[in-house]
Probable GTP-binding protein EngB
Amino acid sequence: MNLFQNAKFYTTVNHLKDLPATRAEIAFVGRSNAGKSSAINTLTNHTRLAYVSKTPGRTQHINFFELANGAFMVDLPGYGYAQVPEAIRTHWVRLLGDYLQHRAQLIGLVMIMDIRHPLKALDVQMLDFFALTGRPVHILLSKADKLSKNDQIKSLSTVKQALKPFTERQQVSVQLFSSLKKQGMAEVETVVAGWFAD
Ligand code: GDP
């Protein structure tokens, strides 16, 4: 089954209390500008399902898309946007943490990290929040096309090494991804489909 292609927009919410009732969800998170919207658009074969280059920071939306198997893909607000006041940033990190830790039907997390700036402090914080659930995380090293093939492989291996301490407590996998080149699409699909099969 093609899980992501033809995903349909379902709803947008601005508060955790308004989250819809769903059977199963997979969430996409990442630092602002990591390439999350592009990745969602590429995976779902839409050009504007998730907005690319929004003005981040003020209203933070959580977008829900329905997948082919009736589960939902949840596009969480990007974190770490520098221009946003500290208080708002902290507020959102807390809300995201709340969702990641307590959303019972969340079966796995896809984290987007720019291949040139992986595993920043807030990324690690998100991993820590999610570790408590015991659910799997799959990391996309995005914008892989910005590096040579050689450097992509080096970066993948460095990140895998850095993730070693995490893999002792949590199922964490990582792959190369490029929305521009549509690189790594089948791999994401296989990993996420595996979560549903578990
Ligand atoms: P978001 O804030 O995480 O949703 O990031 P966006 O998807 O809006 O992407 C941020 C910037 O990175 C935009 O200028 C995109 O065009 C660019 N970008 C995203 N994905 C890729 C990619 O695979 N390759 C390249 N070269 N640029 C990308």
Remarks:
- The helical segments are 36-44, 86-102, 121-131, 149-162, 164-167, 185-197.
